[in-house]
Write a structure and sequence with these properties.
CATH topology: Porin
Number of strands: 10
Strand content: over 45%
Strand order of the largest sheet: 1-2-4-5-6-7-8-10
Number of helices: 3
Number of domains: 1
Largest sheet: 8 strands, antiparallel, barrel
Helix content: 10-25%
Distance between the termini: 32 Å
CATH class: Mainly Beta
């Protein structure tokens, strides 16, 4: 996070310096307004070590008149996808005559999609924008959940925990971006989240019994438990976008 803050500070200072040195640096408002498409890539997770990124596509609303009262209006769609699939099955699920618990890689599926309406107000090279997104997210993980207990020759524990979560809600947002040229821009976006969620958790328990010099294993899938609720949060750095206008 410190590296990200330093990078943002450096970019901001550099932009102000370049603007002061050359007032013509960046795009002219009239040039930018002739383009109806904007493609933006969120790069903040690059600095946090995560591989996923959100891609946004914005299209001028009512192309014949997408500027109203000095404001540019866009419909925008966004998507994020993060997936991990283990090619080898959980080794503990087989017939293993050993008390050693073998962990396995997690299977992860994370997909978010959204659609929103955006208004932009431009002043020279700067643009500030605001509006709201409707977001849906599905997240599931099949992970090792090792725990153990029991007495004497009988031990019990949890081998695997399956968790799936569905979320849907709205995200009011606002942001600012700066045009480095008539095509390229960099921007920061923040916002709020109001979402409904449904989560289901299923656990696979095991029982290990030792008898006559041999370990016996038994796996049992428990009844799933589920919960529903509402989440609200403030995302101080929702997106750090590199943009291309065309």
């Amino acid at each position: 996070m410190k590296k990200l803050q330093l990078l943002l500070s450096f970019l901001f200072i550099s932009l102000l310096s370049l603007s002061a040195q050359n007032k013509k640096f960046g795009a002219d408002l009239s040039e930018v307004k002739t383009y109806k498409n904007q493609l933006e890539l969120d790069i903040k997770n690059i600095f946090s070590g995560l591989g996923n990124a959100t891609l946004l596509y914005k299209r001028g609303h009512k192309l014949d008149k997408f500027e109203v009262d000095g404001k540019l209006r866009f419909v925008r769609v966004l998507a994020r996808f993060n997936n991990q699939i283990a090619l080898e099955k959980n080794p503990f699920m087989g017939a293993i005559d050993s008390l050693q618990i073998e962990f396995h890689p997690n299977d992860v599926f994370d997909l978010s999609i959204g659609i929103g309406f955006e208004q932009q107000k431009m002043f020279r090279n700067f643009v500030h924008y605001w509006s709201i997104d409707c977001i849906a997210n599905y997240y599931s993980i099949d992970g090792s959940a090792y725990s153990i207990g029991g007495i004497r020759n009988v031990r019990t524990g949890v081998d695997t925990r399956y968790t799936s979560t569905i979320q849907a809600g709205v995200n009011p947002f606002f942001g600012i971006k700066y045009y480095l040229s008539e095509k390229f821009s960099i921007g920061i976006e923040t916002g709020f989240a109001f979402q409904y969620f449904h989560q289901k958790i299923t656990e696979v328990d095991y029982t290990t019994t030792y008898s006559n010099g041999t370990y016996y294993y038994k796996l049992m899938e428990k009844e799933p438990s589920s919960t529903n609720g509402i989440t609200t949060n403030f995302n101080n750095l929702r997106f750090l976008n590199l943009g291309y206008t065309f």
